[in-house]
């Protein structure tokens, strides 16, 4: 039977230290309370823990990592328990018992075992990198060193909750347009599959000479009915090519630079990264983490190769005695990157390639001269689209990714010794801008989708009724 070492207080407030044998920790606590003591700390005696490794608590099976919202809730609860004065091991065991089976529960079991063996909280958490990242571990270490763990946990909980709220808001704003696009695509596919072939059969029976728009509509209908897999295969090939190129360092840099220069969405990505990195750096600086370590952690949370390069340059400059604002200003202009130009060219060729695939698979019902015209149009669209996209990139490549506002705020923060406060203000500003842009995009997408659907339905109706009008006129 395991032996538990405990600290307690009696009715007069005197501290009691003793050992007790019990089957489980809960049973040991019940026995101690029956003795008239209030438990303040309890743990398995180290000798007993080492002597009986076979009694280690079984871990439930778990796939993947812990969800961010669960880590947020755990951090907030741990900060409350620490503020109440409970021992850290007791607090962790309470939260571990209340936690649902999963990766977080397994990690808390491992952390408790490590602390019982004499490790600190930060050392124990560093052995579970899939749940507690470097940002989390370094802030805990700073809290332990400064003797203000409960304050650091509160800041960490605020930071995680703010980041999670922003992610939820962006994801929530995208649900409506994605749902509308999927439903509209299904409706158009059903029209192409069931309605257009019926009209095609009727036109063939009457032997009508079809106008070019009707022939294009019939070619698109045949394409969707017979070669629908190409509509999925071609975008998948583009996606696979992008993933393969991103495996290489220059490919990842080029793709991330391409994402930052996209119209409207690029600004949203840029402001989101700035909000996240400045809040991360401000939280680390205010928690007492050394500036070089704080910059390295912030670089890992950027999620963008261009911003990672900027933070690398800032780190190198600080090692040479510079301030943060100067290298940040000097390296915030991306310049030309051949892989970024390639991704812009790839985006420009997509509409033309889709038209070419329709022309090459066009079957009966489409005149040979119309098919040749369609091939020519597809080729022109491919070349012209690639050229226009590359020209747009050349015009936008010198635009700064870090605004002068951020640089000036960081400069003022360094001069006044309030760097963390200024970084928080920058993060709050960009969080607000991301919220405004997200709401604006959500409202803009709705009329754009209506215009697209109206144009698609109008094209189908006109293409089908042009031969009908010609047939009625000839009969009259």
Write a short abstract of this structure.
The protein has 19 helices and 3 strands.
Describe the structure.
By secondary structure, the chain is mainly α. It has 19 helices and 3 strands. It has a 3-stranded antiparallel β-sheet. The longest helix has 58 residues. It is elongated, with a radius of gyration of 32 Å. The relative contact order is 0.08.
Oligomer: single chain
What series of H and E elements makes up the topology?
EEHEHHHHHHHHHHHHHHHHHH
Outline type:
elongated
Mean pLDDT across every amino acid position:
82
How much of the sequence lies in strands comes to under 5%
* Regions with little confidence, pLDDT below 50 for 5+ residues: 47-55
Strand order of the largest sheet: 2-1-3
Strand elements, count: 3
Share in helix: over 70%
Determine Rg (CA atoms, Å).
Answer: 32 Å
Which terms summarize this structure?
3 strands; 4% strand; 3-stranded antiparallel beta sheet; 75% helix; 476 residues; 19 helices; mainly alpha; single chain
Topology diagram in text:
Elements: E1 3-9, E2 15-21, H1 25-34, E3 38-44, H2 46-51, H3 68-83, H4 88-98, H5 103-116, H6 121-126, H7 134-146, H8 149-206, H9 212-226, H10 228-246, H11 249-260, H12 265-286, H13 291-302, H14 305-319, H15 325-330, H16 338-360, H17 368-396, H18 404-416, H19 419-475
Antiparallel strand pairs: 1-2, 1-3
